[in-house]
Amino acid sequence: MPLRAKITNPAIAGRVQMSSSPSRQDLSRTEAAEVIKELPGDEPEDVLFNTLFGVRTIELNRPKTLHSLNGSMIRKIVPRLQEWAKSDMANVIIIKGSGAKAFCAGGDVKHLAEENLKGWEGQRNSTDYFALEYKLDHLIATYKKPYVAFMDGITMGGGVGLSIHAPFRIATERTVFAMPETSIGFFPDVGASFFLPRMSGGVGTYLALTSEKLKGVNAFYAGIATHYIHSTSLPALEHRLAELRFKDYDSKHTRLTLIDSTIEEFCTGLPHDEPMLIQGKLRDAIDRCFTKTNVPDLIAALKAEEDEEVKAWAEKTIATLYQKSPTSIYVTLRQMQLGRTWSIKDTFHREHQMADKFMRHPDFTEGVSALLIRKDNRPVWQRASLDDVKPEDNISEPFFQVEGANRLQLLNETDYTQYPHSEFGLPRESDVQELVMRTPKSRKAIVTQFIKERKGKQGVKEVVAEILRRRTTVTPDNKAVWAFAEGVQESGAQATVGQTSGDGAATEELSTGEVAIGEEASGGSEAAATGEESTGEEGNGEDASLKKPSSE
Question: Which ranges of 88-156 does DSSP label H, i.e. alpha helix?
């Protein structure tokens, strides 16, 4: 989601399903050979650039808005990235936020909603802003040089787009990750169509639909971050990365491997008082419910949970889903299903068209107005409730119709269908599946092998053990066997979204975490939709953290 776009023209929003506008052929812009550069009136110091030996640093510098990303910032960042890509002196790119509160908190959705009330020309410029943001996100996702994101503090919406596609994503004890868009009548964008469906089981869909937050080490356990480091170590890590020297003929993979081992030097342990939240019974329930292919079945699955602790979580989750825009819920669920087959280029092309349609749909403006303008937190959605939507209404379909005249022109043509750098994070479910199916071993032996292969990387033991608990059974001779449960979608060794739990024999701790819409939140960024505190001029919001698991 874009942040504080500099929009000068109006946009339209009405109490109709989707407002009319001039033909998209008329609205399309010629973007061939586009050069992105600063414009008169752009803020002079909203992004700071620094050089330290081989390191080039991008420092987001709008602390009053929790580093909301706007057009001015993008028009500074893109040319620098393009310049550094050609420089033999630039070895490592680091992006971070100034101060301790946030990396980048999400879009200034309040400003967008206000503009959307003024007429179709503003909507046109809003869509153009999304195009600018997605071009930057795709550039980062396909960048030719090592790129490291310090996800220190609030990392939501547009901030996720600046970090999630990087080969190295560092979480700290201050990290707060969320994609809160369904709370405001939008959809998870900035490439969420690519990264969320590729999370195992139903976790990505769960995060997309509920706006659930992952804090600190749990962003690492979930695979959102590749490393977990205490925030006090970040300055030393930055200096250490600056000392690295590469040979001219070193491949990108060789350079990434050296950077990975350097970051690991600063990974000095995981907090013992913050257990993995999405595990055990909660994880099994998420996979049972959030792999359903339609909303009524998903709600029914939540209602069918019988375990007392899981039932309490399920009831809270149902209440959360009923607070969201019904249109957003239906579109987002469909997005999670389609996105697992989209390439990285497809993702940004399709999200650009979806964003254009959402800017013409009344729910976005209404959701933001209720949260940040009227501040009554009582949005009147176009569909009053999930119960008012019938399957034959097919309300998500218009958002996925492709309009060729409005096709996004990216800054390069690089494409892929799986992240090329996933080896630097924690083992994926597909990695564990491949080993289990290749060589019969005990669960303990499999965990030991992964720890050895990943050179003692922290978090490997916990994550692999949880995958084995869910997805394997044990034979009489103590060998792990992969469980192809009903509803699981496999593709060779690569497991994708739609996986369900295995035997679920082990008893684990359960998270009763819930997401809360901060009633007092009045800042303009996406973080307000999750109740995260804003230090901006518009006011503050409640902090609604995930509750810790209760022991059984």
Answer: 109-116, 120-141
